[in-house]
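Colleagues,

For the teaching module next term, I've prepared a clean inverse folding example: a structure given as tokens, and then the sequence designed for it. I'd like students to try predicting residues themselves before seeing the answer, so please don't circulate the second half yet.
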């Protein structure tokens, strides 16, 4: 098969890296994988995997008429058998052109924690957790058979405990007797900010008792706010408790150098692959340690959760402290975590499953009646138009900016408590 993979962006992030790693593994299995997307920091990562890359037009409108036409031309020229799009904007770019005009099947992966109503119900979906898969099947009713589940895959060969973390610690001035808690994440207001501020607040409370250092590896639109909050904590303790070294194309040394990792999604799984004890974070103050007693929660809902809205720093600090107190438990949990990843989340097994999904989608495509396609087209076109219009309305922008200001103010207030 000739597969075109269209990630939603090529900035540093777990879902984008997963898309590229899966494409490379599918190529290793004997298929042709082509990556299409707007140029970003991961462009060189794509080339390093030996994958063909075609740059998408950077226009920001969603769905994008320029990319719709560009993608259709690319599919015709490269004789593409199927488009694997990630999230709703790439899905609609593929749907309106290559799919409706040329008949190229589209499979859409949604790795967010909800399914967007902007994905046509005639387009097969891949969800990232069993819980979300069940939810979308119920919503699609008779179309539940075109909903698949594929958990975040981890390259267990690249992510393994043999990576040397000593150089990472020395580079940041972290002594052997200090305890390093690491987070590898986009420093973003969207989905991440609650977890980031909880991590900083938890480290602030633990630093009074433990020789702890918290390293937040990543970059994004919330970086300046995270640095401001870190500066307050560092000044309070008169030492550098919180470090923000910036984003990294290869964060494996950060995982390797950590004593404990906190995070969510594929970052959490990569930590487990490196044999590191883990506390999983989510939104609105949610945090839960990952161990044999809690793994059932994560296998069902994914490595993420949503709390009640209060600060999650106390619960996070307590979970991290239990790990800091017991080096032997950290070692045992690390080994158990890697075994879990090997059994359930390996990249090789995920690629094999994905190839089967590709084959099912190609076989199922001719069976979709034109009437159903027309109804889906009308419904999703109206929703997409309203969504993009609202996004650019001044009132919507003002509300979004006001919410952002409120969250930043809350962060500063909590940091000063």
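(Answer key — instructors only)
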């Amino acid at each position: 098969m000739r597969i075109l993979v269209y990630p939603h962006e090529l900035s540093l992030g777990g879902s984008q890296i997963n898309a590229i790693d899966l494409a490379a593994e599918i190529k290793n299995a004997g298929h042709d994988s082509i990556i299409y997307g707007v140029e970003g920091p991961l462009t060189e990562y794509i080339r390093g995997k030996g994958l063909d890359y075609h740059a998408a037009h950077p226009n920001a409108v969603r769905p994008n008429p320029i990319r719709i036409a560009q993608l259709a031309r690319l599919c015709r020229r490269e004789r593409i058998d199927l488009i694997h799009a990630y999230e709703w904007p790439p899905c609609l770019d593929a749907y309106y052109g290559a799919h409706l005009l040329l008949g190229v099947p589209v499979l859409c992966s949604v790795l967010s924690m909800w399914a967007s109503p902007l994905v046509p119900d005639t387009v097969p979906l891949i969800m990232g957790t069993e819980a979300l898969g069940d939810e979308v099947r119920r919503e699609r009713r008779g179309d539940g058979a075109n909903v698949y589940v594929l958990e975040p895959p981890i390259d267990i060969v690249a992510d393994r405990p043999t990576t040397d973390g000593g150089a990472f610690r020395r580079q940041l001035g972290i002594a052997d007797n200090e305890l390093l808690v690491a987070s590898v994440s986009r420093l973003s207001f969207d989905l991440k900010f609650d977890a980031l501020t909880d991590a900083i607040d938890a480290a602030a409370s633990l630093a009074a008792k433990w020789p702890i250092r918290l390293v937040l590896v990543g970059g994004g639109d919330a970086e300046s706010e995270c640095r401001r909050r870190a500066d307050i904590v560092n000044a309070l303790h008169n030492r550098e408790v919180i470090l923000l070294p910036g984003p990294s194309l290869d964060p494996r040394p950060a995982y390797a150098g950590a004593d404990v990792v906190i995070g969510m999604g594929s970052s959490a799984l990569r930590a487990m692959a490196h044999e590191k004890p883990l506390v999983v974070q989510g939104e609105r103050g949610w945090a839960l340690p990952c161990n044999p007693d809690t793994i059932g929660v994560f296998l069902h809902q994914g490595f993420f959760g949503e709390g009640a809205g209060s600060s999650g720093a106390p619960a996070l600090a307590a979970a991290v402290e239990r790990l800091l107190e017991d080096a032997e438990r950290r070692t045992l949990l690390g080994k158990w975590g890697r075994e879990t990843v090997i059994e359930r989340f390996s990249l090789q097994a995920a690629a094999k499953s994905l190839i089967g999904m590709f084959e099912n989608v190609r076989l199922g495509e001719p069976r979709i009646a034109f009437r159903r396609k027309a109804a889906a087209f009308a419904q999703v076109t109206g929703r997409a138009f309203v969504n993009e219009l609202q996004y650019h309305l001044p009132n919507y922008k003002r509300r979004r900016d006001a919410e952002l200001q409120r969250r930043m103010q809350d962060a500063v207030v909590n940091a000063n408590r």
